[in-house]
Amino acid sequence: MSVYFPPYCVENFLNINGYLHKAHESRLCLLDRAKLPCLTKNILENPSPILDLTDYSSRDNHNIEKIIESEDKRLPKKLFAYPYLIWVIAFIAIPMFFIVYYSLNTPEGLGLDNYARVFEPLFLNVFWRSIRLAVICTVICLVLGYPAGYILASKDFEQKGFIIFLFLMPMWMNFLLRTYAWMTILENNGVINSILERFGIAPLAMINTEEAVMLGMVYNFIPFMILPIYTVLKNMDTKVIEAAKDLGANPVKVFFRVIFPLSLPGVISGATMVFMPAVSTFVISDLLGGGRVFLIGNVIEREFMTASNWEFASALSVILMVTVLISIGLFSLIGRRAGN
Amino acid sequence: MKKALKYAYIGLMLFFLYAPIMVLVVFSFNESRSRVRWTGFTFDWYRELFNNPRIADALTTTLIVGILSTVFAVIIGTMAAIAIHRLRSTRKKLDTVQEKTLLGFTRLSMSSPEIILGVSLMVSFVFFINTFRLREIGFNMGFQTLLLSHIAFNVPYVVMSVLPRLSRIDERIYEAAMDLGASPFTAFRKTMLPQLKPGIISAAMIAFTLSIDDVVVSTFTAGATTNLSILIFSQARRGVNPSINALSTIMFIVVMFLLYVINAIDKKTKKNVQDDNNEGVLEI
């Protein structure tokens, strides 16, 4: 049985499974180096599948370039590359440029005034709250999700396929509806409070709090943490674990010295996939925070849609984008460190 | 004992994941508006749903945008993946630069938060509409911009799920077809396309669900047009409403059905294709 990953997992899975890299490596293996004395480093770095099984030993350097050139013409290359280049410029580059441009746009020409406003205590607070909630949400997801991934990957767990299917299914459901579902439960006269009432306990104010927003985030994003961890643990070489046990390590030591470090790529990919949507959300904080828990996403949305202060909202967007890019960079740096 | 603990933990997690959805479903059949007391079984909320023209309109918009954006994204994305793949296999510096640029922007788009994609598209649409007076030719914020932005955020996912397939394709078959006299297009259709098919199918699936699911980008780029997500969002902001529960239940059932169909198709293709190691798919 196979299970489809929802959208933004794909790229991450490509990375953690190393498919892209493997594809290159396997092609390198196919090239029989002994047969290719004149192959330059450059070709090795950009191996072409066409080169694979050709015997180049009898040809000289010059000819190879010609061969590559002529063989390349077989598939329309430029023909397909240019439309996409135009597409990328029109729908990715230009919009991004506009955001940066508007963020620098002030009544007195180009300047950094909009950015200066971001550092007012009010907005620093919002910014700090977004980061704090996203970090806590990522940590909770990790703490709750790691055991789940671990159990799912363990050998004696039966009915694995079906259960993983169950974990994936909510991810295919509209994320708005999943958030909305919690409104019914947390409301002042919602499910939890009505149960409490029956036991004579005073109702709790749960909705419109930071905790409610955090709960919504964890609920929505925890599958993104479980699945990469599961994938990594499942593909882990069990011989390493057995070797550690044979060498006398106790289970705790085996876990912290062997299993956890080896599963770090999954953890990092999961953390990225949880942190990124959590830090930029405005839907969850809007529905479960009831306009009382303001995150950076809410400010951007309000400034763009109702306040029409595009310049300031653009500056906020740029800052959010930079935050996300930095966090992705940090995560991958940690991953690489751990890998070494 | 240890095993029981494992099952208990997974059980709790699944309860956490499904309990809210179940509450949602149950109360869509509740007679009173209350979410607390069960007063009796009814289909009223479903009836109200089907009699509501706004919901029918929103659903139509969602489906049309979903289908059209999937078709366009698959075409553009597959072509782009082929282009990037071809650019990889040369030594020319310019080609490498081009490949890196294309791939870089594709990745950038995928790793941007949705809200950034939404606002950046909105800002540029508005700019172009105002500067070139596109209103006079009938181009305004609305269905067109909604569709364009859905295609825009779908294309990178298509590229990324077709690209890994391409590197595993045996291009010699394509060349053989050309040698035997096929035109490039026929050769592509007869040799490459069948090999790319699993990648393209999963790309289309991803694109379609992304489009149906999207709230954030639509909020910014839809103008006066309303799709299902925008409608639900605006209603949910005002509080809980049993009609939305009914709508959620229907959507939940549709998604379950779709997933079942996809798995069935997948099993079938598995039998035919031995090496089906698709990147959109996790092998269990």
Seen as an oligomer or otherwise, the chain set is heterodimer
Tally of helical runs of chain B: 11
Structural class category of chain A: mainly alpha
Strand content of chain A: under 5%
CATH topology of the largest domain in chain A: MetI-like fold
Q: Distance between the terminal alpha carbons of chain A, to the nearest Å?
A: 34 Å
Architecture overview:
The complex is a heterodimer of chains A (340) and B (284). By secondary structure, chain A is an all-alpha fold. Chain A folds into three domains: 7-72, no CATH class; 77-109; 122-339, MetI-like fold (Orthogonal Bundle), CATH 1.10.3720.10. In chain A, 73% of the residues lie in helices and 2% in strands. Chain A has a two-stranded antiparallel ribbon with strand order 2-3. In chain A, strand 2 and strand 3 (109-110) form a beta hairpin. Chain B contains eleven helices and one strand. The two termini of chain B are 26 Å apart. At the A-B interface, strand 1, helix 1, helix 2, helix 4 and helix 5 of A face helix 1, helix 3, helix 4, helix 5 and helix 6 of B.
Which descriptors apply to this entry?
heterodimer, A: 340 residues, mainly alpha, MetI-like fold, 16 helices, 3 strands, 2% strand, B: 284 residues, 11 helices, 76% helix
